[in-house]
Amino acid sequence: MQGASKALHELLVSAQRRGCLTAGVYESAKLMNVDPDNVAFCVLAADEEDEGDIALQIHFTLIQAFCCENDIDIVRVNDLAKLAAIVGPSEDSGEPRDFHCILIMNPTEEGWKDPALEKLNSFCEASRNVNDWVPTVPLPE
């Protein structure tokens, strides 16, 4: 689990630097509808108070179904504050973003492979082998 946690942190930082990260439930849904083949990984995040948000849970269910249908690995995170600290505000406006859903896109550079993404893909595959289809990954301190 610790390896997956560190790999997720590295992947988020790398994707943000490369411009391969999309944040927000609606932005992610639009992107998945237009270009699902370009999505490499999905992160769903919710705090305890979000568990009672029925609309958000419906969005999560639909996103999870879409990811499973399109062979996109997906994990959950239970700490929006840590996630926001890793990814940071929007570079365009400096405004806080919706971090409930984050998509990592395939980079435009040919032949680029992210070792953190490969670790997370292996972690997700191992989780599916024990019927944990959307594993929860804690973020490092």
Automatic annotation (TrEMBL):
Subunit structure of this chain's protein: Undergoes concentration-dependent homodimerization, which is required for growth inhibititory activity and enhances interaction with PCNA. Interacts with GADD45GIP1. Interacts with PCNA.
Record-linked InterPro entries: GADD45, Ribosomal_eL30-like_sf, Ribosomal_eL8/eL30/eS12/Gad45
Keywords (A to Z) from UniProt: Apoptosis, Developmental protein, Differentiation
Entry's family note: Belongs to the GADD45 family.
Species: Eolophus roseicapilla
UniProt KW Coiled coil keyword: no
Domain Ribosomal protein eL8/eL30/eS12/Gadd45: 7-88
Lineage: Eukaryota, Metazoa, Chordata, Craniata, Vertebrata
Stated role: Involved in the regulation of growth and apoptosis. Mediates activation of stress-responsive MTK1/MEKK4 MAPKKK.
Protein name (Swiss-Prot/TrEMBL): Growth arrest and DNA damage-inducible protein GADD45 gamma
GO biological process: apoptotic process; cell differentiation; positive regulation of MAPK cascade; regulation of cell cycle
GO-annotated cellular components: cytoplasm; nucleus
